[in-house]
Amino acid sequence: MSHPASLLAQWRQDVPASVVVALVALPLCLGVALASGAPLFSGLIAGIVGGIVVGALSKSPLSVAGPAAGLTVIVLDAITALPSFETFLLAVCLAGLMQMALAFSRSGLLSEFVPSSVISGMLAAIGLILILKQFPHAIGYDGDYEGSFAFLQPDGRNTLSTLWAVLNQQIVWGALIIAVASIAFLFWWDKARPKEGPLRFLPGPLVVVLFGVGMNALFGFAMPGLAIQTTHLVQVPVASNLGEFAALFRLPDFTQITNPAVWTIALTLALVASLESLLSVKAVDELDPQRRTTNKDRELLAQGGGNLVSGLLGGLPVTSVIVRSSANVDANAGSKLSTILHGFWLLASLLLVPAVLNLIPLSALAAILIATGYKLAKPALFREKLKQGWNQFVPFVATIAAILFTDLLIGIVIGIGIGLMFVIARNFRPAISYVQDGSEALVRARRNLYFIHKHELQTALNRVPDDVDLLIDLSATQFVDFDNIEILNHFIRGAEYRGIRVVVRGDLAERTAPKIKAPRKEVVYA
Description:
Blueprint: H1 4-35, H2 40-57, E1 65-67, H3 72-81, H4 85-104, H5 116-138, H6 159-167, H7 173-192, H8 204-222, H9 242-247, H10 260-287, H11 296-313, E2 318-320, H12 322-330, H13 337-352, H14 354-357, H15 362-376, H16 379-387, H17 390-405, H18 408-427, E3 432-437, E4 440-445, H19 454-462, E5 469-473, H20 482-495, E6 501-505, H21 508-511, E7 524-525
Parallel strand pairs: 4-5, 5-6, 6-7
Antiparallel strand pairs: 1-2, 3-4
Helix pairs in contact: 1-2, 1-12, 1-13, 2-11, 2-13, 3-10, 4-10, 4-11, 5-6, 5-15, 5-17, 5-18, 7-8, 7-15, 8-15, 10-11, 10-12, 12-15, 16-17, 17-18, 19-20
């Protein structure tokens, strides 16, 4: 049982962090719902479920789940193709059950095969996207929805052309003033935040939001020309009573359970959401200052449970989301309590103060996301990857470029492909060395041996002459695959008839299977 003092310290750390995450999550939930062609309230339901349900089931201390921009195209096409939104909700429930089945089949280990350079590239790309996508919102342009990661936008522009367009149109100076002041404060607060006293618990993003609301009220009173219009404010559905609030929830249409399209969409959602969640959780583990490792199968179970509940309540599908999670890390969260509490804050704000939420300028929230993006894509990260060598730097940069000019999932697939090319190329470098000095010969494996090394190993063994003492050195290997072991066994069996005395060095009995056979007395293990 935890000591009361440590529990109190955890609450002091996680409560402010949860407020920050809720502020970041609010516009993203609305933006993803809008882009998906779904009711705005369905995005908020997904955000609440991602916090409370997924947060409670997951073992990840810092990951935050919610509606994801990476699923918007799939969700939009699904809602359009199916008879009703309620039918789509049934597909979300089925997707959750499929994810839970994937968890029990231990599919979470697939994320371990993604190169670290690709994960780093994904984080840096998301940081750059946040900066590029939020800049227009910071100066009052809302042509693209909050939370968009796609290069091509619904308004016909792309990420780069939008930047040029907004600089050539009339700037909303009130939004720009709030954004610039907020960004400056956030960077200053990161350095000046006191280490002791009550102010150390004050989250900078909360100050930014309150500043934005207060400044816009001041503009409206004293300088109407700078006042921000409602189109550039948060727009949360407002219910005047509990009856209207309850009516915002939708239920799945279970009569469509035999519709083949429902199952096809459910399978698509389950696979894509699982992939995005696994990659996000792995990335968050790398951001964790304590370097804790999340159980990936348990994460799939949590995500599946979240999608089941979200679908039953009328919400969008959920995944683990990097933007919210990185905001959670930046806010110094220490446990999943922050994730769970952020869901409760979203729910409480919708029940108690929805009209107050609609006073928050999007430019203030854009400032928070721009600051978060900079922390994910600091120049120091690029210098560090370059120092690690081209085999790390090239997949890193390629992943960034691919994500920037396509979308998150396509970019990750491209990054993994380029990373695998480097792995294969590295393994095609000479792995076997052969040396002979008089009556002594050496065949040494420099690293693990796979099927692609069969020809190289056979060529080295073919160079061994008769009547020599041969040392086969496998001490540098941790794995030798079956094909190469068979080649070694075949050579060792014939060595007696050629007068070759063989010594095999390396603890293969413990580190490989099957064990190299030694049928002749001339074969000695060192």
